[in-house]
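Hey, I was hoping to borrow your eyes for a little while. I've dropped the whole record in just underneath, so have a look:

——
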Amino acid sequence: MEKLIITAAICGAEVTKEDNPNLPISASEIARASLSAEQAGASIIHLHVRDEEGNPTQQKEVFKKVIDKIKESGVKAIIQPSTGGAAGMTWQERIQPIYLNPEMATLDCGTTNFGDDIFVNDLPLMRNFAKEMKKLDILPELECFEVGHIYNALQLLKEGFLDKHLHFDIVLGIPGAMPASIKNLLFMVEHLPSDATWTSAGIGRHQLEMAYHTITMGGHVRVGFEDNIYYKKGKLAESNAQLVKRIVRLAENYGREIASPQEARQILQIN
């Protein structure tokens, strides 16, 4: 198996310090959390940012401030801005961070019931995202919450909007979308192109189970406060690094090596 890429999803757009007081919110907190996650074994930092009131924002200027702070801290990992933003944002709002020319960014591949909200990603919106990322030579991480989302991504490929290595993120356990189970993970992976790479992201209590099976299946793993704020039942996680370290231990027990940031770039064919 190729080496394991671990993504640390540092803070997300929905979690608050009331949920877990260890959540990093400010630029300095996110930079420290990113560095400790990388030192623990993460090679991708999945990034959301917040405004001064702690609310989710896609403003390019806020992303720049946080990314600059992360790089100043010495982080060498791939910084992967989210273009998901929050439900209700326009695509023009959501896409702003790609104009900072990151190596990689997320591209959501289908509309999803997201709790009480609807997270809209129709094909015209997806084409806009893919077209702009292609223009800027950014590798999209293709976020899929249902099996139909994989075929939306393949439609973009067929239409010529995707011309780089295909890397999927299979997100399972979102309320309103496909539940997290081994059966559903296997089902999703069976529909991926044979030459694609993939990461799994299990939400909440499913994070550890999905990570364990993904390691054995040859996929890559995403953990972090965006998806899960607990280390175990009833015990809040102390940091993103703590969650990353557990994945490193699982991988080492299985005999699978951890990818460095540069090795992750090679696996994902990032120039």
User: Anything to note?
Assistant: The first strand starts at residue 6 and ends at 9. The chain has a mean pLDDT of 96. The chain has one domain: 6-267. DSSP finds nine helices and 14 strands in the chain.
